[in-house]
Amino acid sequence: MSDAFAREVTELDANNGLKKNARREVAEALSRSVADTYTLFASTQGLHWNVQGPLFYSVHKMTEERYPDMREAVEKAEGLNDVKTADLLTERLGVHEDNAWMLRATIAD
What pLDDT shows up at residue 49? Predict the structure, then answer.
């Protein structure tokens, strides 16, 4: 997170019950989540277009179903930088866990 953004986040005059340090922590966690979601989105899209082998169809369809949601989450989160986005962070973590479970189940022996 840039220093300017960190100062902006901590200088918000928000009356939401969170102290400035807590707001900074939430903003930093959200920034990491957006970056992770974008990385996962790019990787999932790459897998979608490059998958080969006996699991081609199932992996191709599974990733096709996942990356539109990730793209929407990235676009939504990029425009937010206040404490209300903590719910978005929680939602994204749940989606990532669901997607990871689906991938593990697909490649399990």
Answer: 86
Quick check: 80 and 88 in contact, CB under 8 A?
Answer: yes
Structural domain spans, the chain: 32-107
CA-based nearest residue to 1, from 15, 10, 73: 10
In sequence order, what E strands does the chain have? none
Structure tokens at 106: 């697909």
CA distance 26 to 33: 10
Per the CB < 8 A criterion, the answer to whether 40 and 88 are in contact is no
User: 25-62, pLDDT tens digit by residue?
Assistant: 877 877 787 788 788 888 888 888 888 888 888 888 88
Cβ-Cβ contacts under 8 Å for 25 (sequence gap 6 or more): none
| Residue 91 DSSP class | H
What does DSSP assign to residue 53?
S
What pLDDT is stored for residue 13 in this prediction? 60
Q: Indicate the DSSP class of residue 54.
A: T
